[in-house]
Amino acid sequence: MNWGLQLAACFLAAVSFSLLVRQPKSSMLVSGFIAVAGYSVFLLLGQSTLAYFAATLLIGFSCEISARLLKRATTLFVTGAIIPLVPGVGLYNTMRYVVEGDYHQAVSTGAAAILGICAIALAITTTSVIFSAVSARRKRRAAP
Question: Which one of 36, 104, 123, 125 has the minimum C-beta count within 10 Å?
């Protein structure tokens, strides 16, 4: 599948999921564009565990910045933007291989999917911790 179609599908998935969870309309497009930026990094880095981590870092930082600029909760943006990265196909294929009795392929595919999930969780946590630390530091400097 070509990149243009993948990125268009990524945008549509992010905006559709944002609509599904009743995200405010003013932030849906932002979530879609953040998702496309993150998914572009994911494709550029070869869809590896590192690609999951780097793409989610970009998504996390973009969502934190957007939340502060638009005076919204970060979770609003992250929820829609992260959906295209979730390795659902890998989890589905893992279960399919288990049912078919191909345990070697199931372990391989399952491990890759779990590593992707862990990379996503670590990157979201990392961006949250960094922004919390920066915010706390600014508040300490501003206090008399």
Answer: 104
